[in-house]
Amino acid sequence: MVPCELSIKVLQQVTGLLIPQERNFEYHHICSFDECYNNSIYFLGKKINNINLPCKNAKDSIYFVEKTVLSDNASSDSIIIYVENARDVMMKILLYLEEGVLDDFIDDDYYITDKKSKIHKTAVINNNAAIGSRVIIGSHVYIGKNVTIGDDTRIFSGVRIIRNVSIGKNCLIRENSVIGGGGFGIEKDESGNNIHIPQLGGVVIGNYVEIGALNTVCSGTIKPTYVGDYVKTDDHIHIAHNDLIENNTIITAGVIISGSVVIKQDSWIGINSSIKQGVKIGGNSLIGMAACVNKDVQEGTTVIGNPAKEISEFIKIQNKINSIL
């Protein structure tokens, strides 16, 4: 349950939906379908087909549903709004509430710039850095030389943005991530000793990107590491130097992406998977959980296993092994 104070008027503005206002309720909770609280907001999608759900007994509530199973079961004093995508409506409402939570979080320890950005007093920002409008920068953040932060971006506590980094507008950088530091580049000298290669090419992050907590996005060697628009990364992810990650890619928790990897747009990188340096992953691909990708993946392909193989090939091999055993 998420506490809230939302009127029908606000819900209309946030969702863009036409909602009857003859019952001008205030809604105090956003609830899961297995909870029953009065004056609440519920979202029921196509996957929910149990007509005896506890939420249907809630009074003075509002239901955003994708099918008609509630029509004869919800209390008569509640409102049912049929929508194409209940999850989309939920997202809009939660985003609205999140903005309010962030505003409540801002206190006297923040100062406001002439561009209406809010910066915590413990943040360290290089004089050379350029901060856009309405940016929020949390406690103990470090922003180094030649860094630009786009409008309406939020940077949470403990983030380190080292140098030569460009971050677009409406981005979210979560706690304790490090962006733009030197990656792991090694060369042998004449005596065979390991020598570090400086990586100064920086990082470019597009618009509407979310970088999860405890991520590492390493600087490119000469050209920048690139993260495209609407890329979303979960927590504990390593993105190495010279990587190119195209728009709308999703990277789930624990993923390790080695250097010079190319991931084309709209791909899904599964939890705890690893991608070898120099590999190219085609667009609309799916990398399965814990897959070890050591060669290129064609567009629109699902690969699983270690080493990662196209799913039908993997099943054939597994069936042969099972028959032998």
Low-confidence stretches: none
What's the CATH class of the largest domain, please?
Mainly Beta
Helix-strand makeup class = alpha/beta
Q: How is the main sheet built?
A: 9 strands, parallel
**Count of alpha/pi helices:** 3
User: Any guess at the CATH architecture of the largest domain?
Assistant: 3 Solenoid
State the helicity in percent bands.
10-25%
CA(first)-CA(last) distance: 49 Å
Taking all Cα atoms into account, the compactness measure Rg is 24 Å
Q: Strand fraction band?
A: 25-35%
What is the total tally of β strands?
A: 36
Average of per-residue pLDDT values: 90
> CATH topology of the largest domain, what is it called?
UDP N-Acetylglucosamine Acyltransferase, domain 1
Widest sheet: strand ordering: 8-11-14-17-22-25-28-31-34
| Shape, principal axes of CA atoms | flat
The domain tally reads: 2
CATH superfamily grouping of the largest domain? Hexapeptide repeat proteins
Overview of the structural elements:
The chain has 325 residues and is of the alpha/beta class. It has 2 domains: 2-104, Udp-n-acetylmuramoylalanyl-d-glutamate--2,6- Diaminopimelate Ligase, Chain: A, domain 1 (3-Layer(aba) Sandwich); 110-242, 3 Solenoid (UDP N-Acetylglucosamine Acyltransferase, domain 1), CATH 2.160.10.10. It contains 3 helices and 36 strands. It is flat and about 80 Å long. The mean pLDDT is 90.
